[in-house]
Amino acid sequence: MIIDLPSTTTSQVNSKLVQVREQGGANTLGRVLTLVIVTDDGERTEDAIDAANDASREHPCRVIVVARGAKKAAARLDAQIRVGGDAGASEVVVLRLYGALADEGASCVIPLLLPDAPVVAWWPFEAPARPAEDPIGRLATRRITDSAAEKNPIKALEVRQKNYCDGDTDLAWTRLTLWRAVLAAALDLPPHERVSAATVTGEGDSPSTELLAAWLSSRLRVPVRRVKATSGQGIVSVVLERKSGLVELERPDGKVGSLTQPGQPARRVALQRREVRDCLAEELRRLDADEIYEDTLKALTKVERARTAPKPKAKPVEPKAAEEPKPSAKRAKEVAAARPGPAEKAEHPAEPAAKPAAPKPAAKPRKKKAAAP
């Protein structure tokens, strides 16, 4: 159900919410937090609302959308309330602010916050340089941004690094969860050797690739190179160098990855690029500071940038026993000519000569009989 309230006030919106609650039952009492979405009014606003609705099925919440309209228009507040099938497992309040009200989002949000419930602020597209000092960011326990949705993702990531405060996070970091899990599991398998170097390859404007390289640098404390990929989307491959060989995790098609390492059969792992709704649902599971993300941001300056991946040092191969080469035809003739002849065999007989056969005795002559006289 969708209820439109044009040219209204926050008190009228709140009264309508109470009326809807009385008509629909006490289901709204099960909300665990308030999610405030801050964006400009446009076509992309509905994409953010859809992602929040899907995430609310895991985290029932009240979603308040602050959609800033044209600042040159007259000051006006147009509200819309969505419940039931149009709001997932939450209740959505869309506030479209025009004119001078466009910069007063926090004042319009405060009367609609759920009592005794944490507040999470989300900037799905462009975000302020320092979210913790934004009027809406000050109300929130957790502040979520998305560097990949900015016009210059790498520059936006550098801004996040300089202005980090406890409670800040980025969906570019959340997209690394599967990669981090697969790499950590691969290093848990034998042989348990220390990684000497690492190389991360990905798109040139992929903030997730930058964060993955920085995470490896902060956790493994080894030199890490970040290489721009010539093909593929997002993160393409990760190579870890160890004494026994290379641990390689590749995802050329953006869907299925291949993990190879010495002494283990090659395996295919699911590494499909995560949707915004999945990343948002994961971030709503925790409301405390993310120390690993903070350490990763600090390690961004330690990552080495390279155009091409260096050739990893291959493990020396043990030489095989030399096989006797087959003689050529010319060589065969020379060998045959060098063999001893019959005369030499007589001088150096290999076997004792056979004894000659004894001569047969000569037959005795018969005596002639005398002739008769």
UniProtKB/TrEMBL annotation:
Residues 351-361 have a biased composition (Low complexity). Residues 167-297 form the Glucose-6-phosphate dehydrogenase assembly protein OpcA C-terminal domain. Residues 52-161 form the Glucose-6-phosphate dehydrogenase assembly protein OpcA N-terminal domain. It holds the Pfam family OpcA_G6PD_assem. Residues 363-373 have a biased composition (Basic residues). InterPro entries: G6PDH_assembly_OpcA, OpcA_G6PD_C, OpcA_G6PD_N. PANTHER family: OXPP CYCLE PROTEIN OPCA-RELATED. This is Glucose-6-phosphate dehydrogenase assembly protein OpcA.
